[in-house]
Amino acid sequence: EAGRYALTGAKIALEQVNKAGGVLGKQVELVTEDDQTTNPGAVLAFSKLASQSDIVAFLGSIRSTQNHAMAQDILKTAKPVMIGGTDPTLTHMGNPWLFRCRPNDSYSGRVIADFGINTLGKKKWAIVHSTDAFGTAGGKALAEALAAKGATVALDQGYANQSQDFTPVVLAIKQSGADILGSYFTFENDLAIFARQLRQLGVTIPYVGSPSIVNVTAMKLAGPALYGTYGVADYAEDSSEGSKAFGKAYREVAKVAPDNQASWTYDAVVILAKAMNAAKTTEAKAVREAILAIKGHAGAEGEYNFDANGDGLHGYNIVRNEKGVIVFDKHIESKD
Predict the structure, then answer these.
(1) 55 in helix, strand or coil?
(2) Rounded distance between C-alpha atoms, residue 108 and residue 235, angstroms
(3) pTM value?
């Protein structure tokens, strides 16, 4: 399902790019391989695509753990790879070919902390996170941001992906005396089970989650269990002119509201085309320089200002789930 959204976002961008004259006067094509949503699947899919010499750039995964799995091959291939994974270390491990089209989790942690403390006025936190690369980095970023703001962490609880039962975690939250919950969930099905068990066991403290909490899939699976929760969302339809325009284009094609599964791939294709046209070549090094030079680009995800590490975005939107509808609350830009 997530893959279908990602593909739709990329195809909408492709159509717009081609209508506007393509790249260097040529029409652009999309070649896809299924990564099976697993690390070995992602490595295999990337190697199949990388073996085709006429492919000039790639869209990686929205899942950090899959981008880590492909990283060695990406380094060897030495062509630009746009990614949606938010583990901060991805753009800080000396791999010059990774360009991120979502804000990384050092920003989400700061924004969750900022909102929970300054807007909701809560100081005693429970943190729940997956023990994979994404969850571990996210949980750590949130704990650090809370410490910097003088809040206390009453519980820092990891769980294994595809857990099926979160009763022990929920009971630990209850016993911790926390007055607010922050989470980093990798998979939507885990999040839905957790949210339902939270409600069943009577936990009603404010809940601010990482972007997966507002994914269409998670909301469908969890239903009313997620009503009234907050999330940091890199994509929020009403947050800017660029996000509104993408929302309109996406709804026309997909007949549903878009989420970050589709917005980052849309931005990735537009940015690649923009960089190649600016560089006047598809040669990898020149394209890399052109991507890093992009400033003030109004994308679906927000305003892109690439830094030297390949991070394009540096803030987040806070949104809330009002009976299954995602409502934009505020944008918090993080100053480094």
Answers:
(1) coil
(2) 13
(3) 0.85
